[in-house]
Amino acid sequence: MAERGGRIIETLIVDLLLVLMALAVLVLARTRNLFAAVVLLGIYSFLMATAMVALDAVDVAMTEAAVGAGISTVLLLGALHLCRSQEAKPVHRPWLPLALSASTAVLLIHGALGLPDFADPQAPIHQHVAPRYLQNEVDVPNVVTAVLASFRGFDTLGETTVVFTAGVGIIALLRRRRPKAEGGADEA
Description:
Blueprint: H1 2-30, H2 34-54, H3 58-81, H4 95-113, H5 124-134, H6 143-151, H7 153-174
């Protein structure tokens, strides 16, 4: 009985986090202040990281907190320093992007309805994929390390390359050059 009560509380916490994330997105969609938008994106990332912790995906939560809330927020604030603080109002109503977003949401929800129940031990992933991972094809005693080192090595390398390239691009954008003085000498 206690285990069932624990699951109910965990489900309520995850549901609350999802509601808060939805509220953050709704407020984000309505705001024109870019600073507020960057802060809301950081809040959304922290809520996502907290939801990942509640779902026992601590490694994903750490990555989301570091990259999504940390680095992304700092880079967006740096880019915001170079532009205006208010978003320009659109010249027309964005009906086409709204329709595209709504149809994508409908397709994702339709696809999610076909998934097996959460934590179902009879789901195909637990019958075919998990046993292969647990065979531990590499000589590492920890299952998580074995999966990250052998099966997700190229994925991790790709993610590192993307983050590095984004950092180099932001540094190139944020680099400032001092204007030369009229006499040709640099100002101190």
